[in-house]
Amino acid sequence: MELKREYVNGMNEQGDFDPSSPPPFRIADIRAAIPKQCWIKNPWRSMSYVFRDVSVVFALAAAAVYCNSWLFWPIYWFAQGTMFWAVFVLGHDCGHGSFSDNAILNSVVGHILHSSILVPYHGWRISHRTHHQNHGNVEKDESWVPMPENIYKKLDISTRLLRFTVPFPLFAFPVYLWHRSPGKEGSHFNPYSNLFSPQERKLVMMSTACWSTMAIILAYVSFTVGPSHMFKLYGIPYLIFVIWLDLVTYLHHHGHEQKLPWYRGKEWSYLRGGLTTVDRDYGLFNNIHHDIGTHVIHHLFPQIPHYHLVEATKAAKPVIGKFYREPKKSGAVPFHLIKNLITSLAQDHYVSNSGDIVFYQTDLNLFQLLSLAKYE
Protein backbone atom coordinates (compact mmCIF):
# COMPACT_ATOMS: atom_id res chain seq x y z
CA MET A 1 0.00 0.00 0.00
CA GLU A 2 1.42 3.34 -1.07
CA LEU A 3 1.69 5.90 1.69
CA LYS A 4 0.10 9.25 1.00
CA ARG A 5 2.79 11.89 0.66
CA GLU A 6 2.33 14.99 2.76
CA TYR A 7 2.76 18.27 0.94
CA VAL A 8 3.59 21.51 2.74
CA ASN A 9 3.34 24.71 0.71
CA GLY A 10 3.01 22.54 -2.38
CA MET A 11 6.21 20.56 -1.74
CA ASN A 12 6.92 17.21 -0.11
CA GLU A 13 10.16 15.89 1.41
CA GLN A 14 11.33 14.60 -1.98
CA GLY A 15 10.96 18.05 -3.52
CA ASP A 16 7.95 17.08 -5.65
CA PHE A 17 5.43 19.82 -6.34
CA ASP A 18 1.68 19.29 -6.10
CA PRO A 19 -0.22 22.03 -7.99
CA SER A 20 -3.45 21.16 -6.14
CA SER A 21 -2.02 21.97 -2.69
CA PRO A 22 -3.25 25.10 -0.92
CA PRO A 23 -0.78 27.91 -1.71
CA PRO A 24 1.31 29.38 1.13
CA PHE A 25 0.25 32.93 0.25
CA ARG A 26 -2.95 34.95 0.03
CA ILE A 27 -4.37 36.84 -2.89
CA ALA A 28 -3.69 40.00 -0.87
CA ASP A 29 0.02 39.13 -0.94
CA ILE A 30 -0.03 39.02 -4.73
CA ARG A 31 -2.00 42.26 -4.89
CA ALA A 32 0.50 44.00 -2.62
CA ALA A 33 3.41 42.97 -4.87
CA ILE A 34 1.89 44.56 -7.99
CA PRO A 35 3.02 48.18 -8.55
CA LYS A 36 0.38 50.85 -8.05
CA GLN A 37 0.64 52.12 -11.61
CA CYS A 38 -0.54 48.73 -12.91
CA TRP A 39 -4.02 49.43 -11.54
CA ILE A 40 -4.43 52.74 -13.35
CA LYS A 41 -6.84 52.72 -16.31
CA ASN A 42 -6.11 55.35 -18.92
CA PRO A 43 -9.12 55.74 -21.24
CA TRP A 44 -7.06 57.69 -23.79
CA ARG A 45 -4.52 54.93 -23.97
CA SER A 46 -7.27 52.33 -24.21
CA MET A 47 -8.95 54.27 -27.02
CA SER A 48 -5.63 54.52 -28.86
CA TYR A 49 -5.63 50.73 -29.16
CA VAL A 50 -9.18 50.85 -30.50
CA PHE A 51 -8.18 53.41 -33.14
CA ARG A 52 -5.13 51.34 -34.02
CA ASP A 53 -7.04 48.09 -34.46
CA VAL A 54 -10.02 49.60 -36.27
CA SER A 55 -7.71 51.47 -38.64
CA VAL A 56 -5.88 48.25 -39.49
CA VAL A 57 -9.20 46.43 -40.04
CA PHE A 58 -10.41 49.04 -42.53
CA ALA A 59 -7.00 49.27 -44.22
CA LEU A 60 -6.92 45.51 -44.74
CA ALA A 61 -10.47 45.50 -46.11
CA ALA A 62 -9.66 48.35 -48.49
CA ALA A 63 -6.52 46.53 -49.68
CA ALA A 64 -8.51 43.33 -50.27
CA VAL A 65 -11.14 45.14 -52.33
CA TYR A 66 -8.48 47.01 -54.30
CA CYS A 67 -6.29 43.98 -55.02
CA ASN A 68 -9.05 41.37 -55.36
CA SER A 69 -6.35 38.79 -56.05
CA TRP A 70 -6.13 35.16 -55.04
CA LEU A 71 -2.50 35.85 -54.19
CA PHE A 72 -3.63 38.38 -51.57
CA TRP A 73 -6.86 36.83 -50.25
CA PRO A 74 -5.21 34.15 -48.02
CA ILE A 75 -2.94 36.79 -46.49
CA TYR A 76 -5.95 39.02 -45.92
CA TRP A 77 -8.03 36.25 -44.34
CA PHE A 78 -5.43 35.41 -41.72
CA ALA A 79 -4.49 39.02 -41.01
CA GLN A 80 -8.07 40.24 -40.79
CA GLY A 81 -9.20 37.28 -38.68
CA THR A 82 -6.33 38.02 -36.30
CA MET A 83 -7.43 41.66 -36.12
CA PHE A 84 -11.02 40.59 -35.39
CA TRP A 85 -9.57 38.65 -32.46
CA ALA A 86 -7.64 41.75 -31.31
CA VAL A 87 -10.88 43.76 -31.50
CA PHE A 88 -12.59 41.09 -29.40
CA VAL A 89 -9.91 41.39 -26.70
CA LEU A 90 -10.51 45.14 -26.43
CA GLY A 91 -14.25 44.54 -26.12
CA HIS A 92 -13.43 41.92 -23.49
CA ASP A 93 -11.53 44.60 -21.55
CA CYS A 94 -14.62 46.81 -21.71
CA GLY A 95 -16.63 43.96 -20.22
CA HIS A 96 -14.21 43.66 -17.30
CA GLY A 97 -14.14 47.40 -16.71
CA SER A 98 -10.38 47.40 -17.30
CA PHE A 99 -10.84 49.61 -20.37
CA SER A 100 -11.75 52.65 -18.25
CA ASP A 101 -13.50 53.68 -15.04
CA ASN A 102 -16.39 55.09 -17.08
CA ALA A 103 -19.16 52.47 -17.29
CA ILE A 104 -20.90 54.28 -20.17
CA LEU A 105 -17.71 54.46 -22.24
CA ASN A 106 -17.06 50.77 -21.56
CA SER A 107 -20.57 49.82 -22.65
CA VAL A 108 -20.59 51.96 -25.81
CA VAL A 109 -17.16 50.84 -26.99
CA GLY A 110 -17.83 47.24 -25.97
CA HIS A 111 -21.09 47.11 -27.92
CA ILE A 112 -19.52 48.60 -31.04
CA LEU A 113 -16.50 46.30 -30.99
CA HIS A 114 -18.29 43.08 -30.08
CA SER A 115 -21.34 43.61 -32.26
CA SER A 116 -19.06 44.22 -35.24
CA ILE A 117 -17.77 40.64 -34.89
CA LEU A 118 -21.16 39.11 -33.98
CA VAL A 119 -20.67 38.79 -30.23
CA PRO A 120 -23.57 39.84 -27.95
CA TYR A 121 -21.73 42.20 -25.61
CA HIS A 122 -23.71 41.97 -22.36
CA GLY A 123 -24.75 38.37 -22.90
CA TRP A 124 -21.13 37.30 -23.24
CA ARG A 125 -19.85 39.78 -20.63
CA ILE A 126 -22.14 38.37 -17.94
CA SER A 127 -21.32 34.72 -18.67
CA HIS A 128 -17.62 35.59 -18.81
CA ARG A 129 -17.93 37.27 -15.41
CA THR A 130 -19.38 33.98 -14.13
CA HIS A 131 -16.33 32.20 -15.57
CA HIS A 132 -13.92 34.51 -13.75
CA GLN A 133 -15.80 34.29 -10.46
CA ASN A 134 -15.75 30.48 -10.58
CA HIS A 135 -12.59 29.62 -12.52
CA GLY A 136 -11.38 26.11 -11.85
CA ASN A 137 -14.70 25.04 -10.29
CA VAL A 138 -16.13 21.90 -11.93
CA GLU A 139 -19.67 22.70 -10.83
CA LYS A 140 -19.82 26.45 -11.45
CA ASP A 141 -17.23 27.43 -14.08
CA GLU A 142 -18.69 28.56 -17.38
CA SER A 143 -16.29 28.15 -20.32
CA TRP A 144 -14.35 25.00 -21.30
CA VAL A 145 -15.45 23.45 -18.00
CA PRO A 146 -14.77 19.69 -17.77
CA MET A 147 -17.70 17.30 -17.99
CA PRO A 148 -18.30 14.92 -15.10
CA GLU A 149 -18.09 11.30 -16.19
CA ASN A 150 -21.85 10.71 -15.98
CA ILE A 151 -22.56 13.55 -18.46
CA TYR A 152 -19.69 12.54 -20.72
CA LYS A 153 -20.92 8.95 -20.92
CA LYS A 154 -24.28 10.16 -22.24
CA LEU A 155 -22.63 11.68 -25.32
CA ASP A 156 -22.77 9.53 -28.45
CA ILE A 157 -19.51 8.72 -30.20
CA SER A 158 -20.04 11.27 -33.00
CA THR A 159 -20.47 14.07 -30.45
CA ARG A 160 -17.32 12.98 -28.63
CA LEU A 161 -15.36 12.93 -31.86
CA LEU A 162 -16.59 16.41 -32.80
CA ARG A 163 -15.73 17.78 -29.38
CA PHE A 164 -12.23 16.32 -29.14
CA THR A 165 -10.94 16.11 -32.72
CA VAL A 166 -9.02 19.02 -34.25
CA PRO A 167 -10.19 21.24 -35.92
CA PHE A 168 -13.84 20.89 -34.81
CA PRO A 169 -13.45 22.32 -31.27
CA LEU A 170 -11.88 25.42 -32.81
CA PHE A 171 -15.28 26.36 -34.27
CA ALA A 172 -17.21 25.90 -31.02
CA PHE A 173 -17.71 29.55 -30.01
CA PRO A 174 -20.83 30.36 -32.09
CA VAL A 175 -22.45 27.12 -30.89
CA TYR A 176 -21.54 28.01 -27.31
CA LEU A 177 -23.18 31.42 -27.68
CA TRP A 178 -26.44 29.82 -28.76
CA HIS A 179 -26.49 26.63 -26.68
CA ARG A 180 -23.67 26.76 -24.06
CA SER A 181 -21.74 23.60 -23.18
CA PRO A 182 -22.95 20.01 -22.69
CA GLY A 183 -24.74 19.69 -19.36
CA LYS A 184 -25.65 23.39 -19.32
CA GLU A 185 -28.73 25.14 -20.68
CA GLY A 186 -29.36 28.65 -21.91
CA SER A 187 -28.43 31.08 -24.64
CA HIS A 188 -26.39 34.28 -24.58
CA PHE A 189 -29.10 35.91 -26.70
CA ASN A 190 -32.11 35.03 -24.56
CA PRO A 191 -32.69 37.51 -21.72
CA TYR A 192 -34.70 34.87 -19.85
CA SER A 193 -31.85 32.35 -19.95
CA ASN A 194 -30.70 31.07 -16.56
CA LEU A 195 -27.39 32.75 -17.34
CA PHE A 196 -28.91 36.07 -16.34
CA SER A 197 -30.68 37.62 -13.36
CA PRO A 198 -33.98 39.49 -13.87
CA GLN A 199 -32.09 42.77 -13.39
CA GLU A 200 -29.84 41.94 -16.35
CA ARG A 201 -32.54 41.13 -18.88
CA LYS A 202 -32.77 44.63 -20.36
CA LEU A 203 -29.00 44.69 -20.86
CA VAL A 204 -29.12 41.35 -22.67
CA MET A 205 -32.02 42.55 -24.85
CA MET A 206 -30.00 45.62 -25.83
CA SER A 207 -26.97 43.53 -26.79
CA THR A 208 -29.09 41.04 -28.73
CA ALA A 209 -30.64 43.98 -30.60
CA CYS A 210 -27.17 45.33 -31.47
CA TRP A 211 -26.09 41.86 -32.63
CA SER A 212 -29.23 41.58 -34.77
CA THR A 213 -28.59 45.00 -36.30
CA MET A 214 -25.10 43.92 -37.32
CA ALA A 215 -26.48 40.69 -38.78
CA ILE A 216 -29.00 42.69 -40.83
CA ILE A 217 -26.26 45.03 -42.07
CA LEU A 218 -24.14 42.06 -43.13
CA ALA A 219 -27.11 40.49 -44.92
CA TYR A 220 -27.84 43.76 -46.75
CA VAL A 221 -24.22 44.25 -47.81
CA SER A 222 -24.05 40.61 -48.87
CA PHE A 223 -27.14 41.13 -51.03
CA THR A 224 -25.55 44.27 -52.52
CA VAL A 225 -22.04 43.03 -53.30
CA GLY A 226 -22.80 39.34 -53.59
CA PRO A 227 -22.63 36.58 -50.96
CA SER A 228 -19.38 35.06 -52.27
CA HIS A 229 -17.55 38.39 -52.10
CA MET A 230 -18.96 39.06 -48.64
CA PHE A 231 -17.88 35.62 -47.50
CA LYS A 232 -14.34 36.38 -48.63
CA LEU A 233 -14.36 39.84 -47.10
CA TYR A 234 -16.03 39.07 -43.77
CA GLY A 235 -17.04 35.41 -43.45
CA ILE A 236 -13.63 33.76 -43.63
CA PRO A 237 -11.97 36.34 -41.32
CA TYR A 238 -14.81 35.71 -38.87
CA LEU A 239 -14.00 32.00 -38.91
CA ILE A 240 -10.30 32.75 -38.35
CA PHE A 241 -11.31 34.94 -35.40
CA VAL A 242 -13.38 32.07 -33.95
CA ILE A 243 -10.37 29.75 -34.29
CA TRP A 244 -8.18 32.23 -32.44
CA LEU A 245 -10.75 32.64 -29.68
CA ASP A 246 -11.27 28.92 -29.13
CA LEU A 247 -7.55 28.14 -29.35
CA VAL A 248 -6.49 30.81 -26.88
CA THR A 249 -9.29 30.31 -24.36
CA TYR A 250 -8.86 26.52 -24.38
CA LEU A 251 -5.09 26.65 -23.89
CA HIS A 252 -5.41 29.08 -20.98
CA HIS A 253 -7.10 26.31 -19.01
CA HIS A 254 -5.82 23.09 -20.61
CA GLY A 255 -2.85 21.43 -22.21
CA HIS A 256 -0.10 22.12 -19.71
CA GLU A 257 2.65 19.50 -19.57
CA GLN A 258 1.67 18.73 -15.97
CA LYS A 259 -1.99 17.92 -15.35
CA LEU A 260 -3.67 20.70 -13.39
CA PRO A 261 -6.44 20.30 -10.84
CA TRP A 262 -10.11 21.22 -10.91
CA TYR A 263 -12.00 21.75 -7.69
CA ARG A 264 -15.34 21.21 -6.04
CA GLY A 265 -16.91 22.25 -2.75
CA LYS A 266 -14.74 23.32 0.16
CA GLU A 267 -11.47 22.71 -1.72
CA TRP A 268 -12.22 25.44 -4.25
CA SER A 269 -11.26 29.04 -3.63
CA TYR A 270 -10.94 32.01 -5.94
CA LEU A 271 -7.16 31.97 -5.51
CA ARG A 272 -6.71 28.23 -6.07
CA GLY A 273 -8.95 28.32 -9.14
CA GLY A 274 -7.07 31.26 -10.61
CA LEU A 275 -3.74 29.52 -10.13
CA THR A 276 -4.86 26.69 -12.43
CA THR A 277 -4.86 29.04 -15.41
CA VAL A 278 -1.87 28.99 -17.75
CA ASP A 279 0.15 31.78 -19.35
CA ARG A 280 1.06 31.32 -23.02
CA ASP A 281 3.58 32.97 -25.30
CA TYR A 282 2.22 33.77 -28.78
CA GLY A 283 5.37 35.23 -30.28
CA LEU A 284 4.77 38.20 -32.56
CA PHE A 285 1.03 38.01 -31.81
CA ASN A 286 1.47 38.97 -28.14
CA ASN A 287 1.34 42.66 -28.93
CA ILE A 288 -1.27 42.29 -31.67
CA HIS A 289 -3.78 40.62 -29.39
CA HIS A 290 -2.95 42.80 -26.41
CA ASP A 291 -0.97 40.34 -24.27
CA ILE A 292 -4.03 38.21 -23.52
CA GLY A 293 -1.61 35.28 -23.16
CA THR A 294 -0.53 36.84 -19.85
CA HIS A 295 -3.48 35.13 -18.29
CA VAL A 296 -2.88 34.17 -14.65
CA ILE A 297 -2.76 37.74 -13.35
CA HIS A 298 -5.63 38.66 -15.65
CA HIS A 299 -7.75 35.92 -14.09
CA LEU A 300 -6.92 36.90 -10.54
CA PHE A 301 -7.23 40.65 -11.16
CA PRO A 302 -9.34 41.24 -14.30
CA GLN A 303 -9.54 44.96 -13.51
CA ILE A 304 -5.86 45.43 -14.52
CA PRO A 305 -5.63 46.94 -18.04
CA HIS A 306 -4.04 44.69 -20.64
CA TYR A 307 -1.11 47.07 -21.13
CA HIS A 308 -0.02 46.51 -17.51
CA LEU A 309 -0.35 42.71 -17.41
CA VAL A 310 3.27 41.92 -18.30
CA GLU A 311 4.62 44.29 -15.64
CA ALA A 312 2.14 43.03 -13.04
CA THR A 313 3.03 39.41 -13.79
CA LYS A 314 6.75 40.09 -13.44
CA ALA A 315 6.15 41.66 -10.03
CA ALA A 316 3.84 38.86 -8.85
CA LYS A 317 5.97 35.86 -9.87
CA PRO A 318 8.25 35.90 -6.78
CA VAL A 319 5.14 35.64 -4.58
CA ILE A 320 3.42 32.93 -6.64
CA GLY A 321 6.57 30.81 -6.96
CA LYS A 322 6.04 27.28 -8.30
CA PHE A 323 2.30 27.89 -8.55
CA TYR A 324 3.15 30.03 -11.57
CA ARG A 325 4.02 28.01 -14.66
CA GLU A 326 6.46 29.86 -16.92
CA PRO A 327 5.19 29.75 -20.51
CA LYS A 328 7.35 28.05 -23.10
CA LYS A 329 9.00 30.69 -25.25
CA SER A 330 7.63 30.94 -28.76
CA GLY A 331 9.22 31.70 -32.05
CA ALA A 332 7.62 34.35 -34.23
CA VAL A 333 4.65 32.01 -34.80
CA PRO A 334 3.48 29.85 -31.84
CA PHE A 335 3.53 26.50 -33.64
CA HIS A 336 4.52 24.77 -30.39
CA LEU A 337 1.00 25.28 -29.05
CA ILE A 338 -0.48 22.99 -31.71
CA LYS A 339 1.04 20.00 -29.92
CA ASN A 340 -0.38 21.16 -26.59
CA LEU A 341 -3.83 21.48 -28.13
CA ILE A 342 -3.85 18.11 -29.89
CA THR A 343 -2.40 16.25 -26.90
CA SER A 344 -4.89 17.77 -24.50
CA LEU A 345 -7.91 17.09 -26.69
CA ALA A 346 -6.77 13.47 -27.09
CA GLN A 347 -6.38 12.91 -23.34
CA ASP A 348 -8.49 15.40 -21.34
CA HIS A 349 -12.05 14.13 -21.69
CA TYR A 350 -13.88 14.09 -18.35
CA VAL A 351 -13.44 14.22 -14.58
CA SER A 352 -14.73 11.98 -11.83
CA ASN A 353 -18.33 12.43 -10.64
CA SER A 354 -17.07 12.79 -7.09
CA GLY A 355 -14.11 14.23 -5.27
CA ASP A 356 -13.25 17.78 -4.32
CA ILE A 357 -9.90 17.75 -6.17
CA VAL A 358 -10.04 16.08 -9.57
CA PHE A 359 -7.92 15.81 -12.69
CA TYR A 360 -8.88 15.08 -16.28
CA GLN A 361 -9.24 11.43 -17.21
CA THR A 362 -8.96 9.79 -20.63
CA ASP A 363 -11.60 7.85 -22.54
CA LEU A 364 -9.32 5.08 -23.82
CA ASN A 365 -11.71 4.07 -26.61
CA LEU A 366 -11.84 7.62 -27.93
CA PHE A 367 -8.08 7.97 -27.49
CA GLN A 368 -7.54 4.91 -29.68
CA LEU A 369 -9.93 6.23 -32.33
CA LEU A 370 -8.12 9.58 -32.39
CA SER A 371 -4.76 7.83 -32.60
CA LEU A 372 -5.92 5.71 -35.53
CA ALA A 373 -7.30 8.76 -37.33
CA LYS A 374 -3.97 10.55 -36.81
CA TYR A 375 -2.00 7.92 -38.67
CA GLU A 376 -4.47 7.02 -41.44
TrEMBL record:
<dbReference type="GO" id="GO:0016020">
    <property type="term" value="C:membrane"/>
</dbReference>
<keyword id="KW-0275">Fatty acid biosynthesis</keyword>
<dbReference type="Pfam" id="PF00487">
    <property type="entry name" value="FA_desaturase"/>
</dbReference>
<keyword id="KW-0444">Lipid biosynthesis</keyword>
<feature type="domain" description="Fatty acid desaturase N-terminal">
    <location>
        <begin position="8"/>
        <end position="62"/>
    </location>
</feature>
<dbReference type="InterPro" id="IPR012171">
    <property type="entry name" value="Fatty_acid_desaturase"/>
</dbReference>
<feature type="transmembrane region" description="Helical">
    <location>
        <begin position="161"/>
        <end position="179"/>
    </location>
</feature>
<protein>
    <recommendedName>
        <fullName>Fatty acid desaturase domain-containing protein</fullName>
    </recommendedName>
</protein>
<feature type="domain" description="Fatty acid desaturase">
    <location>
        <begin position="69"/>
        <end position="324"/>
    </location>
</feature>
<dbReference type="InterPro" id="IPR021863">
    <property type="entry name" value="FAS_N"/>
</dbReference>
<dbReference type="GO" id="GO:0016717">
    <property type="term" value="F:oxidoreductase activity, acting on paired donors, with oxidation of a pair of donors resulting in the reduction of molecular oxygen to two molecules of water"/>
</dbReference>
<keyword id="KW-0560">Oxidoreductase</keyword>
<keyword id="KW-0443">Lipid metabolism</keyword>
<dbReference type="GO" id="GO:0006636">
    <property type="term" value="P:unsaturated fatty acid biosynthetic process"/>
</dbReference>
<dbReference type="InterPro" id="IPR005804">
    <property type="entry name" value="FA_desaturase_dom"/>
</dbReference>
<feature type="transmembrane region" description="Helical">
    <location>
        <begin position="49"/>
        <end position="66"/>
    </location>
</feature>
<dbReference type="Pfam" id="PF11960">
    <property type="entry name" value="DUF3474"/>
</dbReference>
<keyword id="KW-0812">Transmembrane</keyword>
<comment type="pathway">
    <text>Lipid metabolism; polyunsaturated fatty acid biosynthesis.</text>
</comment>
<comment type="similarity">
    <text>Belongs to the fatty acid desaturase type 1 family.</text>
</comment>
<keyword id="KW-1133">Transmembrane helix</keyword>
<keyword id="KW-0276">Fatty acid metabolism</keyword>
<feature type="transmembrane region" description="Helical">
    <location>
        <begin position="203"/>
        <end position="221"/>
    </location>
</feature>
<keyword id="KW-0472">Membrane</keyword>
<feature type="transmembrane region" description="Helical">
    <location>
        <begin position="233"/>
        <end position="251"/>
    </location>
</feature>
